[in-house]
Amino acid sequence: MYLAQKKIKGKIHYFIRESYRDGRYLRNRDLFDLGTNPANYIVYPGGNAYYIDEAVENKLRSFEAEPAFDELDNIFWSFLKPEIRRILEPFQRRGGAKRVRISQEEEEKLRTQVHLFDKRRIHYLRYGHIDQGKIGRMPPKLFRVLLEKSRDEIEQYFMEMERSLGPSELKTYVYVIFDLQRFFTEMIAKIIPQGLNQDKVDEHLLNEICRLDSDRSFWAGMNTEGRLHEYLTRYVVMYFDSSYGPSSFLDDYIRDFINSRRFYRAPPKKSAVSLDEASTIFGVKKDALKKMTRRGLARLYRRMAQKLHPDKGGDHEKFIKLTEAYQELLKSRK
User: What does pTM read for this prediction?
Assistant: First the structure.
């Protein structure tokens, strides 16, 4: 039993749903429509006490669905009055995380039945790494949360987990979970995706979304209605409505580059690159730089990076200066 949400006529509606086995497939069904405000079904008798309206449990019984201990409390937890939630939170978490050993049968299911797309999502949400090279060595127990869940319940789980991502991570997250780095031979594909040809990245993303949309093993037990599912549409919106983070991944690249060369000493931190300096570094007039969009600036950076990159025979110091100038210009275009 789980809380699901769906946008209807521009408003978020909430539902209590459950996954159930139907032959070889796990499917989902709605048990109770909570409307746009589940808090309407929380009753406060006084003090710090609360209970869930009997109408909810009565409806669940009509489906022969009996919630497990604390299951309804967990579903409604985020809709409690904040002051009561603060008081009860220590009791809500008093048990802490339980270590549960998985059986060999479960481990085999986790290795063979968890879709690779789900593994990539968990990998990024857990570790925040762009490079997917270590995904094959992830312990199977990390995927245990996905066992015996319908595709709908899995997607609702990821929707909730993705709320922890910051705005500057969204575009990179989509880049990673669709494993777009595998289409590029450049070293920066695993470190600075914004340094790649973005037209090519966009093209590969749309192809991968279409491929996943037609993957029957991914949608097993779920009706896709013959059009791009809203669970995939959200990634299209997430990607094209977001921008890459202005500096974090560039900083990671520079740090890795420096650490890989023991003889190199990091220079003292300098002040921000001025517009005059950036104009000289990029070989573009100041007025043109001021008017340049993030996309245009990224294209200019890629072109210059190809010339100055040390692995391409360029000058290391000039490449560092170019990257610093690029970061500073991005900051003014948030």
Answer: 0.71
